[in-house]
Amino acid sequence: MSSQRVSGTAVQRTIAVLGSAVFFVVAPCMLAGLVPWSITGWQLRPPFLGLELTRGIGAIMILAGVPGLVDAFARFALQGLGTPAPIAPTRNLVVTGLYRYVRNPIYVAVVAIILGQAVLMGVGASSSTACCSGSPSTSSSWRTKNPRSSGRLGESTRHSAPPSRAGYRG
Prior knowledge:
By secondary structure, the chain is mainly α. It has one domain. The chain has six helices and no strands. It has helices spanning about 1-25, 30-40, 55-80, 105-120, 125-155, 155-160. The longest helix has 30 residues, at about 125-155.
């Protein structure tokens, strides 16, 4: 009986890793890679405010966003036994790593990567992409995820982490 439970969890974890990998390529890689490339061609333009220092700030934003994005996806698959895709949600609530401090580190990381590219390359169009992609998805996540999660994940959502919105009674 115990070996069946272990192998069942291993199968779930494998499916979660594969699903997360596919979603990683489809969503954030397209949004933080293909869309900025289509706008900028990844060609350097004059730096913001004429300061080369801004290019370094952009590179730091990208270097901070990429590991956070990879870590968030890994935690979804390995700890949550699911994917960030709404079609295959996690079985367990993830409250470790960046999830302990930020409601949705995937959104934060993708916006950091896109803004970092804009600052690095001196392009304003990419920054508008980051704002347009980050704002609606973050607000829709705040409105919809907690009520659904609390019903499916039960009491673990009430005591796992402090609420990030004042007055929210999810």
